[in-house]
Design brief:
about 230 residues, alpha+beta, Double Stranded RNA Binding Domain, Four Helix Bundle (Hemerythrin (Met), subunit A), 8 helices
Length: about 230
Amino acid sequence: MGLLTTFSEINKKWPNQSFKILFDPLTKLELFELGYFASSDIPFRCFSIKLNPGDNHDKDVALLYSAASKQFISLLNKDDGLVLTLYENNKDEISQHLELIKTDLAKFKDQLTSMREDLRDQIVKCILVERKVDEAMHFTLSNEVNRRVYFAIGECRERAALIPIFQNSKGADLVQLALHKWMDYVLRLNQDEKFPEEKTTGLIKNFLQIKKWLKDLITKQLAGISTAKEEINV
């Protein structure tokens, strides 16, 4: 059973709670990406996302799932704000878990609002790269064909290469090397066959490390903490 089917069955049965956070003064896309960042802890993966093209981001939606905590999260852009809903079978802890996300998102919103426009844009693009890392892991775990896995990894690598704060951060070279390694491996496979099951654990482990590094980079950048590579004085 796919996660979309599972979600369609539990979203009316499981306990759930929501909150709305207004867009202003951020754009709809900026707050949506921040909501994704606040929600997508390391074990979570996005199994469905729909973003409107261009500047109209009404009704953008994303669905996330964590097998570790058995939680689903939905993000939905409405006219005046982002609505985040947490679904969890443990109704005694759902309020506490949702409040943690709400607190983080409010903090991230204040931090992003105070930044200059070019840095805001780079941070939003870093979160997009995080989404693509999640997408690559989801395709792998869902037994998708190699072509989809390859293009998801390729998009991670290509988008990251265009973001100065990503490229200039400590550890970026190792991340790009890992992405290149997996791209090269998948490219040599039959593109119409499913990703090899025996390689899934290795890819997931590597991509979870990349996601952890990326979330640390974004968190520090939002807080105004430098992630730049150390310069060697000769």
